[in-house]
From TrEMBL:
PANTHER family: PTHR45749, ZINC FINGER MYM-TYPE PROTEIN 1-LIKE. Residues 463-519 form the HAT C-terminal dimerisation domain. Pfam families: Dimer_Tnp_hAT (PF05699), DUF4371 (PF14291). One of its GO terms (molecular function) is protein dimerization activity. The lineage of its organism: Eukaryota, Metazoa, Chordata, Tunicata, Ascidiacea. This is DUF4371 domain-containing protein. It comes from Ciona savignyi (Pacific transparent sea squirt). Residues 6-241 form the DUF4371 domain.
């Protein structure tokens, strides 16, 4: 009953259609086909076995990578990533924080313990995903996702301000920090985005670094509404400073000096009006006179300070001995004579005695309290007021926004005039209906006492007051301080220290971004990161 096709093979292709029809109707073909259908119903195919095996492997490696990623996120958020490329053996006390925490987790995680026992420290050809290369790839992926999230928020918020500052790192490379402020529905935020190594400190060079970053990330320069730097000339210069170069590209980017630094400089200028101890100069005789004069006026105070230092048990021995040496020098008769003879040798212009005058005193005698008030306190207050008036003038351009904080107490005519002034300056951002919107919005706020917890209700009202929304977003995105940039320098010192001075610029930016913006890092989807990691591996 077997045909030629089912027994010895077939080669008569000329009569193939006839023989195929005969074979399909044969008893052997029907019996074999029924056996195939029966076995297929009872058992699975090899393809399904492969699919099950692949799915099992995928779940296994996802569990491994999720634990690895959790450790990396924890260490990165605290700036504690430490990898030992020379020693990547699990169990070694010198393998770094990354492998060390995985070892600690394995003590309480049976799955991770079994994975380490089966696949770790087995040499080449055994995949474990515990290597420093995998850790670096995850850091790079996480940093890109955090930065992309920040860039998307900036584009969604539209209006933003920038602040930059620079400081040298451990290798004496000047790092320019870039911080961007923008407004979210919950309020304004300031985000660190990047460190940029700089080779020049002129205003044009610093501005070009910022412009290159904005262009590279696809952020609109025309939406820049504020810039805040310190009071250095290369930053704040009116003609060649960085703020002048940025203003040439966008005249709406208002320059606002750092308020905190300006206030600090006010106190510094006020303190400079009081005389302090001066070092001697080998060439300038006038400097020697200033030093001796300062020593004469503060002789007792300086002596008391030196005595306190020499008696302090917490001070270093060298410091205490130096203070004792100064005390012995000051207590010498020659030193006291030279210091106090300065007052005798000081030339005075004698005043003529007037008619019927009983005394010829050179001035009014004051007690110690009055002398301090006249010679120190009033001088400091005058200097503070003078310096404050000078530095407050830099914020005069922001007066156009002053009515935003007090329009609940203003009349309708005052609100209308202030709104027209603002409309004239931001004619491309605001519409002609702004004065009327501000008047209606002010009336609404007077009727309903909104607080910070009502931000959702206020956000819903913004659809009815679109121009008011634009004004508030521009006003709140203005950066008045570069304190966030100063804080980023603290992270720079921790991340790039003397033990990791040779790290690349990309790794520095990734670790700094993950540490500073750890709130965003915490919300990054683990499955999305693992998927991106798998795509990079498949491309390789």
């Amino acid at each position: 009953d077997k045909t030629m096709m089912a027994s010895v093979g077939y080669c008569d292709w000329k009569h193939a259609p006839r023989d195929l029809a005969r074979h399909e109707s044969s008893e052997s073909h029907i019996r074999c086909l029924s056996m195939y259908i029966s076995r297929k119903a009872k058992t699975t195919s090899i393809c399904k076995d492969f699919e099950k095996q692949n799915e099992s492997d995928r779940k296994y490696w996802c569990k491994v990578l999720s634990r690895v990623l959790s450790v990396i996120k924890f260490l990165s958020s605290r700036g504690l990533i430490s990898l030992s490329r020379q020693n990547e053996l699990v169990g070694s006390p010198e393998n770094g924080n990354f492998l060390g925490i995985l070892e600690l987790m394995a003590e309480y995680d049976t799955f991770l313990a079994e994975h380490i026992q089966k696949r770790v420290n087995k040499g080449r050809g055994h995949v474990s995903y515990f290597s420093s290369t995998v850790c670096e790839e995850f850091i790079d992926i996480l940093a890109k996702k955090v930065l992309n999230f920040i860039i998307s928020e900036i584009k969604q918020a539209k209006y933003y301000s920038v602040s930059v500052d620079s400081t040298p790192d451990i290798t004496n490379v000047d790092q320019l920090t870039i911080v961007i402020r923008y407004v979210l529905p919950d309020g304004p935020v300031e985000r660190f985005v990047q460190f940029v190594p700089i080779r020049g400190h002129t205003g044009s060079q610093l501005a070009q670094n910022l412009l290159d970053f904005i262009e590279d990330k696809g952020i609109s320069l025309k939406d820049l509404r504020g810039q805040s730097y310190d009071n250095a000339y290369n930053m704040s210069g009116k003609y060649k400073g960085m703020q002048a170069v940025i203003t040439e590209h966008n005249h709406l980017a208002e320059y606002i000096p750092c308020v905190a630094l300006s206030l600090n400089l006010v106190g510094k200028c006020a303190a400079e009006c009081c005389q302090s101890a001066q070092p001697l100069s080998n060439t300038r005789w006038s400097a020697r006179h200033d030093a001796i004069n300062a020593l004469r006026k503060g002789y007792q105070a300086i002596l008391q300070v030196l005595q306190a230092i020499s008696d302090d048990e917490d001070e270093q021995l060298q410091t205490k001995q130096t203070a004792k040496g100064f005390i012995l020098s000051m207590e010498k008769l020659e030193t006291a004579a030279v210091v106090f003879m300065l007052a005798i040798l000081h030339r005075k212009k004698k005043r003529k005695v007037r008619l019927e005058e009983q005394s010829r005193s050179e001035g009014t005698s004051l007690d110690s309290s009055s002398r301090f008030k006249v010679e120190s306190y009033l001088l400091i207050i005058d200097q503070i007021l003078l310096s404050m008036k000078t530095r407050i003038a830099a914020y005069d351009r922001l007066q156009r926004f002053s009515f935003v904080a007090r329009f609940k107490t203003m009349t309708n005519s005052e609100i209308q005039e202030s709104a027209k002034t603002l409309l004239h300056h931001y004619s491309n951002d605001l519409e002609e209906s702004l004065p009327e919107e501000m008047i209606h919005f002010s009336a609404l706020l007077k009727q309903h006492n909104f607080n910070r917890e009502c931000s959702i209700e206020i956000q819903n009202l913004m659809s009815a007051f679109p121009n008011v929304s634009v004004v508030l977003r521009i006003y709140l995105c203005l950066m008045i301080s570069n304190c966030s940039g100063e804080r980023s320098f603290s992270v720079l010192k921790r991340v790039k220290n003397h033990l990791r001075s040779s790290m690349s610029q990309q790794r520095l930016n990734s670790l700094a971004l993950l540490c500073i913006e750890n709130e965003i890092l915490t919300n990054v989807d683990t499955r999305d990161v693992i998927k991106s990691f798998a795509l990079t591996k498949s491309r390789k």
